[in-house]
Amino acid sequence: MQNDNQKQIAGAILIVGVLIAGAILLKDSKLPTIKDNGIAITTLAPVSKEDRVLGNPNAKVIVVMYEDFQCPFCGVISGLEPLSASTQSLLEMLKQRDPTWTPFISQIINEYVKNGNVQFVYRDFAFLGPESGKSAEAARCAGDQGKFWEYHDYLFTHQNGENEGAFSDSNLKSFAKELGLGASGFDKCLDESKYSQAVANSKNEGANAGVTGTPKGFILKDGKIVSTIDGAESYTTVKTKIDNALK
Question: What does pLDDT average to in each consecutive run of 10 residues of the chain (247 residues)?
Fold first, then answer.
């Protein structure tokens, strides 16, 4: 039994490494580029009114994150609680690899976004299957009623496997009711796939920027990419990159 457990942990850690490495595969860029660890950064769509944003619209530093609501790594880096059982296990494995590891998104928001120094941008990269696409659509439908971020948080704290029904249409509608959204408007939006093209467009834009997996982030200063966030990095690592951008 002990050997089996060790194999499971080793396998999970290997998966962590593979997925984190997968987010680093990038292509050439048409816009102003940098070399981050020797890797060329590709074209990144500029922040627009179509984006879901938090913070000062005039902030000189912007963090753009591409994520998938089914991605367990995205759930872990969010820093949101309570974590699902599977996401909690992943957190423990990350801490086994690095005891100092801590999630970064909630801390970025609390320490940089709320004081106006950084703007945070969430973008969909729904690549893990049909429930990724539908959950991304559902969050946008919630946004029609002014509750994108509440729904965003609810999804990340209710992950439970990939394409196994956790984000079925019926569950997505149930989540909306839990958050006090108007059922008729939300259900109509989801049933009519109002945002399916927008979600697809976001994924395509991410692919054009070299995104191959999630989480993947870009740190911009005065509109230019100055660094990237590759996979489930620790807050201490991301903090250093943001502090350097703010100098």
Answer: 44 43 34 45 85 96 98 96 86 94 96 98 98 98 98 96 96 98 98 98 97 97 96 97 97
CA–CA separation, 38 and 6 (whole Å)? 35
* Residue with token string 């990939």: 162
Cα angle for residues 91, 96, 100 (degrees, 5° grid): 80
| CATH code for the domain in which residue 15 is found | 3.40.30.10
Q: How far apart are the first and last CA of the chain?
A: 52
**Which residue range forms the structural domain that includes residue 40?**
2-246
**Cα 159 from Cα 222, distance rounded (Å):** 35
Q: Hey, which residues does 120 pair with through a beta bridge?
A: 54, 63
Q: Give the total number of structural domains in the chain.
A: 1
Handedness of CA 74, 76, 82, 85 (dihedral sign): positive
Pick the closest to residue 193 from 174, 169, 171 (CA basis).
Answer: 169
**Structure pTM?**
0.83
**Residue type present at position 193:** S
